[in-house]
From TrEMBL:
Keyword Cell inner membrane in record: yes
Annotated protein name in UniProt: Glycosyltransferase 2-like domain-containing protein
PANTHER family assigned to the protein according to its UniProt record, in alphabetical order: GLYCOSYLTRANSFERASE (PTHR22916), UDP-GLCNAC:BETAGAL BETA-1,3-N-ACETYLGLUCOSAMINYLTRANSFERASE-LIKE PROTEIN 1 (PTHR22916:SF3)
Domain Glycosyltransferase 2-like: 3-119
Length: 263
C-alpha cells in the first residue's frame, strides 16, 4: 500500500532514529526506499546494516549529489507501492503512523483522492503550527491554503501515479526546488484530505537544514525558487501575498543574473 520515501545527504547521525521508528510501527505493510544523495559520511555503511536487519522491505539507491528534489524524483520512480509518504532523514514516525494512514484510506469514500495531509509534532510531541479548535466549514482546496491555515510544516502522503505525472523540475547547477510547487500541482489532480488533529510525523529542525538557511538557498537556487514564485503569484488569493511572491520572483531573476555572471 505505501512506500516511505527518504532522501538523505550526510545524515548518518540521525538515520538510526528514523530506522528505529519504522521498526516500531504497529503495521509493517510498507516498504522503505532510501535515496542517498551523494553522502560523504558513513551513511552507506549504516544503510547497508539496516538492510540486513530490517523487518520490512527496504531498498537503497545512491546518486550523485543533486538535491532533495532530484532524490524524490528518483525514489518515486523506484517505489513499488500505491502511496508515497515522504519522510526526511532527520525525522521519525510515531508507532501508529502507518496503521493510522491505512485505516484512513480504508475508511475513505472519496474516489478522486490524490493525497492525505496530517499534522507534524516536534520530538517532544508538541504539534507544529496552529492548533485548530473550531470546526472548519470547508477543507482547504490546495496546499497553499493549508499552509496559511496551519502555519506550520505538514506531512503529506501522495498517490504515486500523480507524483509520476508531476516530477520536480531540475536546473543545472541548482539543488533545490520548493516542494509546494509540486504539492499544488498534485492538488489540481484531485482532492487532498486534511486532518486537523492527527499527528503522523515527528520532526526536528537542524541548523544545517533548508528551513534555517532560506536566504542562502534562495541565492544558490534562483531558478528553482523563481519557477515556484512565478506560479505562486496566481495561486495566492490575497493581493498582499501576490505582491510578496512577485517581489521574491524579481529577487530570483536578479540572483540568477548575478549567479550567471560569476560562472
Amino acid at each position: 500500500m505505501i512506500t516511505v520515501l527518504t532522501a538523505t545527504y550526510n545524515r548518518a547521525y540521525t538515520l538510526a532514529r528514523l530506522y528505529e521508528s519504522l521498526e516500531r510501527q504497529t503495521n509493517k505493510q510498507f516498504e522503505w526506499v532510501v535515496v542517498d544523495d551523494g553522502s560523504t559520511d558513513n551513511s552507506k555503511a549504516l544503510l547497508d546494516g539496516f538492510q540486513q536487519t530490517a523487518t520490512f522491505p527496504m531498498r537503497v539507491v545512491e546518486q550523485r549529489n543533486s538535491g532533495k528534489h532530484v532524490a524524490i524524483n528518483t525514489g518515486v520512480a523506484l517505489a513499488g507501492r500505491e502511496w508515497i509518504f515522504l519522510v526526511d532523514s532527520d525525522d521519525a514516525l510515531p508507532p501508529d503512523a502507518i496503521e493510522m494512514f491505512l485505516s484512513d484510506v480504508k475508511d475513505s469514500t472519496r474516489e478522486n483522492s490524490v493525497g492525505y495531509c496530517y499534522r507534524k509534532a516536534d520530538l517532544a510531541g508538541n504539534m507544529v503550527g496552529n492548533v485548530i479548535t473550531a470546526p472548519r466549514l470547508a477543507e482547504p482546496v490546495s496546499p497553499t491554503e493549508a499552509a496559511a491555515l496551519y502555519q506550520g510544516d505538514l506531512a503529506y502522503i501522495f498517490r504515486r501515479e500523480a507524483m509520476l505525472k508531476h516530477p520536480f523540475p531540475t536546473f543545472e547547477g541548482e539543488k533545490f526546488v520548493p516542494e509546494l510547487l509540486i504539492w499544488n500541482r498534485l492538488s489540481d489532480e484531485g482532492s487532498i484530505q486534511y486532518f486537523d488533529h492527527k499527528i503522523i510525523y515527528l520532526c526536528e529542525y537542524l541548523e544545517d537544514g533548508y528551513s534555517a538557511n532560506f536566504a542562502q538557498n534562495l541565492r544558490r537556487n534562483p531558478r528553482g525558487f523563481g519557477v515556484y514564485y512565478k506560479h505562486q503569484i496566481g495561486r495566492e488569493k490575497s493581493l498582499t501575498r501576490k505582491v510578496k511572491c512577485l517581489v521574491r520572483y524579481v529577487q530570483c531573476r536578479v540572483f540568477g543574473v548575478l549567479k550567471g555572471r560569476k560562472s
